[in-house]
Amino acid sequence: MDNPKRVFDLAYRQILSFPDLPMFAYKSAGQWQMVSSRDFLEEVCAISKGLIALDVKPGDKVGLVAESRYEWHVVDFAIQQIGAVTVAVYPNITDADYQFIFNDAEIRLCIASDKTLYQRICNLVDSIYSLKYVFAINKFAESRHWKELADLGRAVSNSQLDDLRDAVQAHDLATLIYTSGTTGKPKGVMLTHLNLLS
């Protein structure tokens, strides 16, 4: 792993190069929580398997509507390592922009961070033609919690995940980032793994 070719290779390289160094730190209830590379990748793989269980395939678009937080990275790596594409969407845009972006990208599944964002996306489901599933990172009543993906993925084998990960190439699309659309409709900027690593 001397020369990572995909974004998610960086986490696997971290285990080999710095196995005892925490990969992430975040605050929870006023206390810093450290996350090792191994624990991070364990979460990533569990979410990847859940996406596979819901029939998310290479090239499919998965929406991620969240502020900067630890879980964002887990979801992003989980999407990318099965060959799907992360569509990172600003949490502070209009409902009309959400509707346009989700339909333009043909997002099949979305993970939103909090109750407000989750409800906004759910209220648009009837006008987003490709969207089948919406999950929330924060836990609250009447939502599908993102950890449910880990439960759904228990029947997915490691070899199935490994095959998908091995098939991802450096020139494959990793993420779509939509412009703010201040001079017209938002436009999706296509970035490959190689784009991001370079």
Topology, pairings included?
Layout: H1 9-17, E1 22-28, E2 31-36, H2 37-53, E3 61-65, H3 70-80, E4 85-89, H4 95-105, E5 107-112, H5 115-123, E6 133-136, H6 148-152, H7 158-167, E7 173-178, E8 188-192, H8 193-197
Please provide a written account of the structure.
The chain has 198 residues and is of the alpha/beta class. It is built from eight helices and eight strands. It has a six-stranded mixed sheet with strand order 6-5-3-4-7-8, sandwiched between helices. It has a two-stranded antiparallel sheet with strand order 1-2. α1 runs antiparallel to α2 and α2 crosses α3. The model has no long low-confidence stretch (mean pLDDT 94).
The helix/strand class is alpha/beta
Note the gap between the termini.
16 Å
Shape: globular
- Average of pLDDT: 94
Low-confidence stretches: none
**Gyration radius from CA atoms, angstroms:** 16 Å
Helix proportion of residues, in percent?
25-40%
Largest β-sheet summary: 6 strands, mixed
